[in-house]
Design brief:
With 236 residues, the protein is α/β, with parallel strands linked by helices. The protein contains eight helices and seven strands. It is globular and about 50 Å long.
Length: 236
Amino acid sequence: MKRTVMISGASRGIGCAIAERLLNDGHNISLGVRDPDRLRHDRPDLVDVGEDRVLVHPYHACDPASAEDWVAATTHWRDELTALVHCAGILRRTGLLFSDGEEADLDDLWRVNVMGPWWLTRAAWSSLSASGEGRIQVLVSMSGKRSKGRMAGYPVSKFALMALCQTMRNEGWDAGIRVTAFCPSWVNTEMATSISRVAPEAMTQPQDLASLSSTLLQLPNAAVPFELMINCSLET
């Protein structure tokens, strides 16, 4: 089944790898990025395949109107929307005992990591429901399953995102919407390599997550897993 897939945060890292894989597998992709011109410059291989296969649209995760505009542009472009992949997110190393002024980081984490997917899902919901086989994939992180170390704001936002995924699943089940929460640990991206001591080659690779994403889009309603926990090192 070839789908029309919206992918947020597709300018680099995991989102970009998923976009490349889904395009190669024959899907039509709508890419929501903060800077479309930069994406066109950095990844012409994605955007130059033709306007019938790829739509690039401005998207700011903390702006509800941006989500509405992007969904409207996508459904006007293809007259359908059958899958949504949430990859946009931010990392702040805000601890439990944060300093004065760092509360702004907590607000940013909530707006981007939780409300961003919430607003975008809400905007796309009627189209996903209409397909009868809608798919939502959310890059949650293992930080939505457990908290390690002293970071507080980031895992709290990811725990909330996991709860949002569970409610998406409950709300969309009868309409054929299936939700998968991707929960990887370290993935070889700029964000991970800036804070982890794990060697990049030992981390999960973005292309591996892209392969999983593509496979899940082919599965029938009765076979889509809700959670995928993906570890590059042992956790007990």
